Amino acid sequence: MPTAGSQIVLCDLPIRFDTYKGCTHQCKYCFVQRKINISQVDKGETVKALQNFINGERTKETNWCDWNIPLHWGGMSDPFQPCEKKYKISYECLKLLAKTQYPFVVSTKGKLIIEKEYLDLLKKCNCVVQISMVCSQYDKLELGAPTYEERLEMCRILSKNVKRVIVRIQPYMTQVFQDVKDNMKRLAEAGVYGVVLEGMKFVKKRGKLEKLAGDYVYSIDVLKRDFIQLKEEAHKYGLKFYSGENRLRTLGDNMCCCGIDGLEGFKGNSYNLCHLINNKEYEKTDKMQEKGTGYVFCRLYQTTLGGSQFKTQSFEEAMLNEYKVKADLYKKIFGKE
């Protein structure tokens, strides 16, 4: 079943769905490989699980959500990587999504998505397609993925066939600033709707990087300098600009960085710490105030005992208590020190 995890406190679209486990893109910076061995690709969640969620079935981790929240498809593994040619799970999911018109955002680097049989289904879907692509310098870091130029061509094709194409300039490194800036015009010409930026998170300390939670990151001042200039360049060519960098989320044209703002039927969850800490508008539903809907917050703790208190709390209580217990940490995460 689609599930929610640690992103519940940060993200407007925290419920993810993955048709595969592992990935063959070989991106050297991939955060997933810190947790699991991604070299072994296998089947992930099923069409049946997707159908159940669309029909309104919820687990203990998603029972706080009683509306058709857009799913984030491809949160941990690319649904259109080469193994899809063998298993066709994503193709079967597309058929269901086209039939039901359930809203979703799909993230990919895979060229398979523009093959005719997939494109014909995407045309009928209620979806936003995100293509992850920073610049050509990253080709050497993504040896198993299509090149930047190939993905730019994907954007040209997809922009004519889906509601929106969003380019994920993630993870961004400061040394490619000029390349990213120069490519804004090309992205606009390819029909891209908007871009979302987020800084690289490093495992080890280097240079002037700062420690934030379990990562080493660029200082907020360094990123802010680049983000403001890149935002101006994006706007120059009519592109929307979104900030996936939590410390700079308010720099974006919308607090939800997935590019769904203004789309009919695409309603995310604004009741999270990102909105609360930044004093932005939020909405909490009646369901979120029911006892037992806070179970998903157990995912923030490595031990069952550590998160056991959330099992009987409401989603609202759990969100507020999580901040109360870790206020200093979340102030750092959202740049409010």
Walk me through what this model shows.
There is one protein chain. By secondary structure, the protein is an alpha/beta fold. The chain has a single domain (3-333), classed as pyruvate-formate lyase- activating enzyme. The protein is 28% helix and 15% strand. It has helices at residues 47-54, 84-87, 89-100, 116-122, 148-158, 177-189, 220-236, 273-277, 315-325, 327-333, and strands at 3-4, 15-17, 20-21, 42-43, 71-73, 104-108, 127-132, 164-172, 194-199, 201-202, 210-212, 215-217, 240-243. Strands 1-2-5-6-7-8-9-13 form an 8-stranded mixed sheet, with helices on one face. Helix 6 links the parallel strand 8 and strand 9 (194-199). Helix 1 (47-54) packs parallel to helix 3 (89-100). It is globular, with a radius of gyration of 19 Å. It starts with a strand and ends with a helix.
List the keywords.
337 residues; alpha/beta; pyruvate-formate lyase- activating enzyme; 8-stranded mixed sheet; 3-stranded antiparallel sheet; 28% helix; 15% strand; globular
Q: What's the order of the H and E elements?
A: EEEEHEHHEHEHEHEEEEHEHHH
Number of helices: 10
The whole-number mean of residue pLDDT values reads: 94
Query: How are strands sequenced across the largest beta sheet?
Result: 1-2-5-6-7-8-9-13
Q: Stretches where pLDDT falls below 50 for ≥5 residues?
A: none
Gyration radius, rounded:
19 Å
As a percent range, the share of strand residues is: 5-15%
Helix content: 25-40%
Straight-line distance between termini: 37 Å
What count of structural domains? Answer: 1
Assign the structural class, choosing from mainly alpha, mainly beta, alpha/beta, alpha+beta, or little secondary structure.
alpha/beta
Give the name of the CATH architecture. Alpha-Beta Horseshoe
The major sheet is characterized as: 8 strands, mixed
CATH fold name: pyruvate-formate lyase- activating enzyme
Top CATH class: Alpha Beta
Extended strand count: 13
Per the principal axes of the C-alpha atoms, what is the gross shape?
A: globular
